[in-house]
Design a protein that fits this description.
By secondary structure, the chain is of the alpha/beta class. Strands 2-1-3-4-5 form a five-stranded parallel beta sheet, with helices on both faces. The relative contact order is 0.20. Helices cover about 40% and strands about 15% of the residues. The chain has five helices and five strands.
Length: about 150
């Protein structure tokens, strides 16, 4: 049963401008209906989440894609802050990073990541990963009503 219908809202924390373009292009090629917004680090991520939560609609993103290695506030710190927040802790957070280090994987799950995905090296593999994420989060899982988009 589809929990999130229509466009999937994704907030991506990624400091590398080339990776942001690559992700944007890959979502476009994947056929996934997505409203994607980018921030460059954990500080911007937390600020954007606070803005969305405080807005009149109060609509948070359906998913957060989080890189680990970013300036100012890295992905680990941002994940910790999200999980410590009563208003944000329900958000699905997927780590999407170049690191495949066991320590990063273990720590991310200990901090409350929902999934850990190592960025594929090839564009066609990235498209397949994004399609899989979309299928999983839109068609397979059931989320609490507070995590669903208001316009669904």
């Amino acid at each position: 049963m589809t929990q999130l219908q229509g466009t999937l809202s994704i907030l991506v924390a990624e400091d590398d401008a080339d990776d942001r373009v690559l992700l944007s292009d890959a979502f476009g090629e994947s056929g996934v209906e997505v409203a994607i917004e980018f921030v460059a680090d954990g500080v911007e991520l937390m600020s954007r989440l606070a803005e969305r939560d405080a807005s009149a609609s109060g609509v948070l993103p359906d998913l957060v894609l989080l890189d680990l290695n970013m300036p100012r506030m890295d992905g680990r710190e941002a994940l910790r802050a999200i999980r410590e927040s009563e208003r944000l802790r329900h958000l699905p957070v997927i780590i999407l990073t170049t690191s495949n280090a066991e320590l990063d994987i273990r720590l991310s799950y200990q901090l409350g990541a929902n999934s850990y995905v190592t960025k594929p090296r090839r564009f066609d593999e990235l498209i397949m990963v994004l399609r899989s994420l979309e299928r999983y989060w839109m068609d397979i899982v059931q989320l609490p009503s507070s995590a669903r988009r208001e316009d669904a």
